[in-house]
Amino acid sequence: MKKYLFIPFAVALAFAACKHEPSHNKGESVSEVRFAPPVVKPDAESIDATAEKSMEVAMPEANAIQIDEPVGVADVKQVVEERPAEVQKKIIKEGDIRFETSDVAKTRKQIIASLKHLGGYAEDDSETTDGDAGSKEYTLSVRIPAKNFDAFLGTVSSTATKIDSRNIHIKDVTTQFIDTKTRLDNKLQLEKRYLNLLNRADKMRDLLDIEEKLTQIRSEIESTQSQLNYMSKQVDYSSLTVTFYTKQPEQVAAGNGFGYKLKNALINGWESLQGLFFGLLANWYLLLMIAVLIIWIRRWRGKRRLAKQA
After folding, report:
1. What is the rounded (10 degree) CA torsion for 207, 211, 212, 218?
2. What is the pLDDT of residues 254-276, one digit of tens each?
3. The predicted structure's pLDDT at residue 135
4. Contacts of 10 (CB under 8 A, 6+ apart)
5. Residue 42 reports pLDDT greater than 80
6. How far apart are alpha carbons 84 and 178 in whole angstroms?
7. Is the dihedral of CA 117, 118, 123, 125 positive or negative?
8. Is 270 exposed, middle or buried (0-12, 13-18, 19+ CB in 10 A)?
9. Residues above pLDDT 70, as percent of the chain
10. Is residue 58's pLDDT more than 80?
11. Alpha-carbon dihedral sign for residues 300, 306, 308, 310
């Protein structure tokens, strides 16, 4: 501030000195007196503004690959990673539900109809029948658009007689998605740079080195793109495993009645008798030995009785 106050004072002194200077002849030329502008130290605001402006100019160059020589594989540097300004959240939703229903065939038909209506599809469809327990079970592994997941889950729950378990897992993969997308963009930019180098290369050694590097970069691009596609599919389509079963009502009801117990007792007795018969038949040589022994004993008794009578 003191330097700014000194400027008007210096100008006034110079003007006074010029006014009291002796007059020149008419033929002589009068030279104009000029003062150099004062050196003013910029304040903090001007420094920040200048730095911000320089940063804005330098930012486009930060994303470029720096190359010191026209052709040189070793001089190619990694692209500076940058994140998108705004990215929609990436959520993966998975779950499973198990319940009992009165009619598995009808329940399956309702679930499949609802699945098609909401734009989903079934990856796996299996059926299991347990004769001893008297139950039939279906398992459906389905994929449903993420926006329709809750609606489909409500439809499935409404068909249940009794829900045994229901588990829903939600995973936020936004950061992982951004990192994968950024790596893919950087590799694509690096591939373009190497393609430009390939067009400018005039030595066989440089051509071979660039081709080898391009092959490696393209392999990395395919791998990263596959990861991104898989993650996008997981985000767009949620997965749900639906397991539902039913018990045979007539067998369950009859299991506690007198008629059912009597029927089982007769069946079990007949099966035991059959087992005994076939068991003895399998040991026929023992039966033969017993028959021979009985005949010999009877004859021996008969001879002994005749001897006593004589």
Report:
1. 160
2. 556 677 778 778 888 888 888 88
3. 76
4. 35
5. no
6. 8
7. negative
8. exposed
9. 67
10. no
11. negative
Q: How far apart are CA 221 and CA 20, in angstroms?
A: 82
H or E element: which one contains 143?
strand 135-145
Contact 217, 191 (CB under 8 A): yes
pLDDT higher than 50, residue 29? no
**Contact (CB, 8 A) for 237 and 143:** yes
Cβ atoms of 240 and 144 closer than 8 Å: yes
Length of the chain equals 310
Is 245 within 8 Å of 135 (Cβ atoms)? yes
Query: How far is the CA of 107 from the CAs of 99, 100, 242, in angstroms?
Result: 11, 10, 11
pTM beyond 0.70, yes or no: no
Mean pLDDT, rounded, for 63-89: 47
Residue 230, token pair as written in the block: 């898989």
Within 10 A of 67 (CB to CB), how many other CB atoms are there?
14
Residue with tokens 């038909």: 109
Q: What is the largest CA-CA distance in the chain?
A: 201
Q: What is the pLDDT of residues 231-249, one digit of tens each?
A: 999 999 999 999 999 876 5
Q: Read off the pLDDT of residues 151-188 as tens digits, 9 standing for 90 and up.
A: 999 999 998 989 999 999 999 999 999 999 999 999 99
Q: At what angle are helices 204-236 and 174-200 packed, to 10 degrees?
A: 160
- The pair of three-digit structure tokens given for residue 304, joined into one six-digit string: 């002994």
